[in-house]
Design a protein that fits this description.
With about 240 residues, this protein is an alpha+beta fold. The chain contains 9 helices and 13 strands. Helices cover about 30% and strands about 30% of the residues. The strands form 2 sheets. It has a 7-stranded antiparallel sheet, with helices on both faces. α4 crosses α5 and α5 packs antiparallel against α6. The chain is elongated, with a radius of gyration of 19 Å.
Length: about 240
């Protein structure tokens, strides 16, 4: 796979009700440090830090973007949040994503209600985020960072660039009809045992299923956190390929 033209930035937002930066600092776990520009983790890793006052839109955006229902206490904190913590750092690999996961978990433990991911427009309540951070495996990382979008004709992922991978596009009819669907493809890619590139064939015990064709990321996403500089893989059913030959 080619390297992206520009570094990938993971951008996270964490709502909370801290009355003053000093309160957040006091509630951080031992070994974590906060400066006006950075959150420093116990292992020395640093991520960029920022904060903005609450607005009248984010709470509803967070609620509507949750992959799993947050707790009532978490939702109450989101609804009454006073400040949004911004964390940003280098992405483009499993380890980089894991580091950002740990940074956000440190803020959640210090009172954050949950995590919103600008790269995929996904949100997670704090309890679920901490569970995924503790797991730290490929399934947890992809579940945390990668959204699945259902269109009328196609189903596609958003956020795979956070992990250093192309996004995936499949026909909705294939996803609905096949037991080797887009979730299995995400898991396969995240394991990284056999990288998939343009022209490669995906197969399982039942034989060849799909052929992959490389595409550019949609132009409308260029310049946004959702843009995947690695591009996409369009998976075409071998049945469809056979019927057109």
């Amino acid at each position: 796979m080619n390297e992206p033209a520009a570094p990938i930035t993971i951008a996270l937002r964490i709502p909370g009700q801290w009355s003053h930066p000093r309160e957040l600092i006091q509630r951080l776990a031992a070994g974590c440090r906060l400066t006006p520009e950075a959150l420093i983790l116990p292992d020395g890793a640093q991520v960029e830090f920022g904060a903005v006052a609450a607005d009248d839109r984010f709470a509803q955006i967070f609620r509507s973007s949750c992959r799993q229902p947050p707790t009532e206490d978490e939702l109450a904190t989101v609804d009454g949040y006073t400040v949004n913590i911004f964390l940003s750092g280098l992405g483009g690999s499993m380890q980089a994503a894991r580091t950002m996961m740990q940074a956000a978990a440190a803020v959640v433990r210090a009172g954050g209600a949950g995590v919103f991911i600008d790269n995929s427009a996904l949100a997670h309540g704090g309890r679920h985020w901490l569970e995924m951070t503790e797991d730290g495996g490929p399934d947890a990382l992809s579940f945390a960072f990668v959204a699945i979008v259902n269109g009328q004709a196609d189903v596609w992922t958003m956020g795979m660039h956070v992990l250093g991978l192309r996004d995936v596009v499949m026909k909705r009819a294939d996803v609905d009809a096949d037991d080797f669907g887009i979730i299995e493809v995400i898991r396969y890619l995240c394991l990284g045992e056999k990288p998939i590139d343009d022209g490669h064939v995906l197969a399982d015990l039942n034989g060849p299923r799909f052929q992959a064709f490389a595409q550019h990321s949609p132009e409308g996403l260029v310049g946004s956190p959702m843009h995947n500089p690695f591009g996409r893989l369009k998976l075409i059913s071998m049945r469809d390929i056979a019927e057109t030959n």
